[in-house]
Amino acid sequence: MADAGAAITVALVDDQPLFRAGIRMLVGSQADMQLAGEAANGKEAIALVSQCPPDVMLMDLRMPVMDGVEATRRIVQHAEASGTDVPKIIALTTFNRDQSVVQAVQAGASGYLLKSAEPEFLLAAIRTVHSGYSVIAPGSVHSLFEHAARNAANSGPDLAVLEVLSARERDVFLLAAKGLSNGEMAESLFVSEATIKTHLRSVLDKLELRTRLQLVAFAHDRRLLGA
Known about the structure:
It is built from 10 helices and 5 strands. It is α/β, with parallel strands linked by helices. 49% of the residues lie in helices and 12% in strands. The protein folds into 2 domains: 8-139, Rossmann fold (3-Layer(aba) Sandwich), CATH 3.40.50; 154-221, Orthogonal Bundle (Arc Repressor Mutant, subunit A).
């Protein structure tokens, strides 16, 4: 785990030099951040991570040579296979309902932002994911995943994937998928927040998910919110 007093190392992956220049200046202006490197496509991003793993990586989704979704998938898989820290990846997109965003979250991204986000919001997002939380562009995350689910093949809920969960874990899964906080789930299920955290960790482990944002995507993708 990184030293709490150390600067957050940030890597930037984008094929537009002018955009990179702007982000470089923004990150460089922050006392608690340090630019770890830049890449112009997903293939270069993978090489960058292997040489100097950053704490946080800003990953454009649409690039030549290798797109951000595939790069995210390979970076996460390699880190997990080698037992090294997985960089917190923030997907960058131009469109709020970009199908690639859903794929990036499923691949292991810790969230997504619009490339038009205000500088203050971008900086706050970097600090947020570095602290272990997910970030999303303003607006409803559920509308994004519902839109993606509607465009997928029409099928009923895939209840079989929940069979690995206990009855209480299933309750926690469904509440978390609907966006409830730990406190709200604890109140709804008449248990402590510590108990909710324990169940939620077990749910993520059993379903092989890394973040709550992945859990939301998982639920929408399998049409489980009505289960």
